[in-house]
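[step 3/7] fold_predict: job queued, chain A
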Amino acid sequence: MAQERKRKYIPRRLKPGARILLALFLLAVIAMCSTLFIDLRSVTRQQDELSGTDGTPAWEDPVTAYVTSQEGELTAAFYNEGLARVADCGRGSQVMLESWTPFITESGDEYYHVYWNGQVGYIPCEFITDDLSELMQETQVYVRSTVNLLKDKNGLELGGLAERGTLLRLVGYDYFSGDGQVNMYQVRLGDESGWIKSEYVTFDYASSMENWSSENCRSTTHIQRGDAYGGGDAGALDFFPHEKGDFGDANVMPKDVYALYIPAFQATKDGISRYIEYAKGTAINTLVITIQDEAELAYESDWVRQYGILDRYTYYNTVDEMKEAIQMAKDAGFYLVARMSTFKDSQLAQAYPQWAITDPYGGLVSIDGGNWPSAFSRDIWQYKVGLAVEAVDNFGFNEIQFDYVRFPDYIINYEREGSVDMKNANNESKAQVIQRFLTYAADQIHAHGAYVGADVFGETSNDYVAPYGQYWPAISNVVDVISGMPYPDHFNSYWDGGSYFRPFQHPYQTLFNWARNVSRRQQECATPAVVRTWMQIWDDYGYEYDHVAIQREITAVYDNDISGGYMLWHAMGSLSCEENITGAVELDYYDLYQQAEEAGKILSDYMKLDTGEGSSKTSGLSNSSSASTDTDEDTDSE
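[step 4/7] structure written:
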């Protein structure tokens, strides 16, 4: 039998093209596996690095360093492990370095391996230092917004006036914010050393002399208005953005304030408890309490005692009694506003005539029913703001409200006669000094965790600087809350072509026209305040301000999209008109306002409110649809 021949296996060779495709496929698989391995290793490395018990990297010998700036930059780029830019780290930020040995890329760029803000990554070496003196590299600044220096960064005492465009040599700083900005600079002004907030300076002269302009707020708007009535040049005021109070959960301002007013003599435990009891079942969420009026104090103030004038005032509580009364209101859930008379204070003027408006020979001048400390006097600023800070620190008020934050009405007549000494050492306008006082007050009171408000005449809704120094856009720009006092009985009556239009008989139309102007003024500043309006609740000339009339006032303001709320004013306290106000304070106007917006209506229409003229209990009054309140006020009661 023939032996079977074994077949020899000869492998079949791939064609050259197929061999190339196979090689490329194998290379791609290898690359994908390598990338996956590297990514896994990077994740494992980060997990290992963050394995410290306190969440920090478990590096062998980490070192502490700081982010510095380069060529005017205030932040440094922070890169992740893959060298992708993921964040900006402000100068002054403290970081942890794995070591001082840099990581060098193939292109020669050098980075330090760092831990910052809970992340591990890289920052370029030129932005890292261990020398604190290298953090602030600027040596001089220019004043952008005219302010007084502070002699101590944490104090009330004012130094010299640093005017716009002035060069300031830098001495030091307090700290950096998260975006790399200095909070306050220590500077030299001539031979004087002091402190100034960084928001009031810039790094070159040209920008310090520029005027703020945005889409809505244009400097030319104010420049063209000039100084029509002796209150000051509108164009010479500060319209750059100003920081507003922001205290997080520690102090939350209601979205809409519905407030009762409590005068100093009622600011006792018994008095406040009556307001708390009344507010139950209503929408009232705020109490405005006078802590200092022209001759009264709500409590026995240590601050006033330091000035030696406590016995000039009548006060109604010890400090402990006041604390108990205020805590009772806070426990009941009320937002609390401390009202104080600012530049109408006869007791202070009489005690310190060197700070007051006097005749040219130093004798006190009685203007508008009293003696007035001069708003030009920085000693007065310190006294008033010190009292406000005391009230915040001792009693926990949420907000300070400055009333009479102006010069006396009709002061221009005395100035023209040359019969007054205003103590104007810095040659400022009245409008400038009112705005600068409120800027100083806001800075100081914000540091103590409270908001700042200012009361202004209804007249300030007009487009000129009032002769007593109030200009709506300038004040709204720097405070947290601005409160107009458009009491209908404050406006002049006038002949409208068919009869006399008497504003006090037309609460809706008078307030509507006023609020329409306020809406325009609010658009003329970079950082407008919340608008919270004082409402008239007292009867006048036979016209009864019952709950219907008060509703007409309130809805007229909301109908112009001014939704910051209301405060009910009567000099003897809101509850002196208890019968009149009850029907008006039961409503949550803000919620109704939102419902009206959704329905495409204004609030008064949505509520089907009769906005006709005449209270619900009064008839036969003049009616006119052509009202205008673009007129001066004819009385001076606040």
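[step 5/7] annotate
Residues 16-49 form the longest helix (34 residues).
DSSP finds 16 helices and 28 strands in the chain.
exit 0
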